[in-house]
Amino acid sequence: MSEKAATKQNILIVHNRYKYRGGEDTVVENERQLLESNGHKVVTYIRDNSELDKMSKFQKLLLPLTTLYSRRTVRDIKRIIREHNIDVVHVHNTVPLISPSVYAAAKSCGCKVVQTLHNFRFICPNGLMLRDGRICDDCIRHGLKCAVKHKCYRSSKIQTLMLVTMLRLHRLLGTYRKVDKYIALTEFNKQLLCSALPKLFTDSNVAVKPNFCFGSGAPTAAVSALEREYFLFCGRVEESKGIFDLIEVFASMSEQRLIILGTGSDFDRAVDCTKQLNCANITFLGQCVKPTVMEYMSHAKCLIVPSKWYEGFPMTIAEAFSVGTPVMAADIGNAGELANMSAGTLPHDDIAQWPTLIRRLCEDAVLQTEIDKAYALYKERYSDAVNYKILLNIYGDSETSSE
Fold this sequence. Notes:
The chain has 403 residues and is an alpha/beta fold. The protein contains 17 helices and 14 strands. Helices cover 43% and strands 15% of the residues. The strands form three sheets. A six-stranded parallel β-sheet has the order 2-1-3-4-7-8, with helices on both faces. It has a six-stranded parallel β-sheet with strand order 11-10-9-12-13-14, with helices on both faces. Strands 5-6 form a two-stranded antiparallel ribbon.
């Protein structure tokens, strides 16, 4: 090992995977690759919700206690830190198998602790601030009891109560203050969290680091405007993602093509909707492998993100920028903040305006300008090189919080 590599911090990445792979899993893998490619020793502690299917009834009965505090987590984390001489413990998700006990275990070994806030779980048990198809801030305004009343986590009052108890208990015990640095994915997220829990989240302990994706690094990566023939939706095909608004809009724009990549709970209903509206210009391609997604992404006039909720930081936006594809999004939350730097936003409460705004990108000169802007954004903000510098600064700036 070179002298330079020997001075790099050793990182432990901690993550509880969901049952179905999502954006958080991609971010975890990307950051692991990023750190390793820059000479860091990276160890991962990964638990998977598929473990729940193999649990006995007795183990499942004990799960609420494990969610609050996991002796296994404490034992495993301390062992890994000792064996691998870990400097920084970077946590992504702890629910339900790992638990917040990871923070105390790491601090007891003298490690810096960093937590990425992928969603709104610290202030909203379902993590989305979404209920019945609308943005919901009831738990911020009226307390976490609202989540139990509405069964916001997995539509279960018992499981929601379990999460609410975890949040309340660890707020009371000061567990979350053991985290040296929190990472918000956008400025919007940071401000929302700081206003919702000002005693926990502050300007000094919350840093902003966006998601990123690996790009070719070549300045000619972006396909020209003349080679782009369609608009693109890429993500879960669900009503909360605004898919039906998008279908309605493109039904009135028969001269423009829309390609939909992905699947989801409303996939069949969305397909039926296009048939009823005779939308020959809309094509569903279902779930595609990553190279195929990126090929379609690189030849799209624009990625459209019409989501009806705040989102986290959709990986598709960083991926679009990496190939010079402009982004338009509904004018709410994180996607709106990101799109505002690119091709612009769409009024979430007035889809009648969308066709005019979208058609603007059909002019080659305008589109080429937006392509150049999108690729410049990638190089300036969302490339792996830029992201590594931000991450290293966060690891280096972490200060021991007062208990």
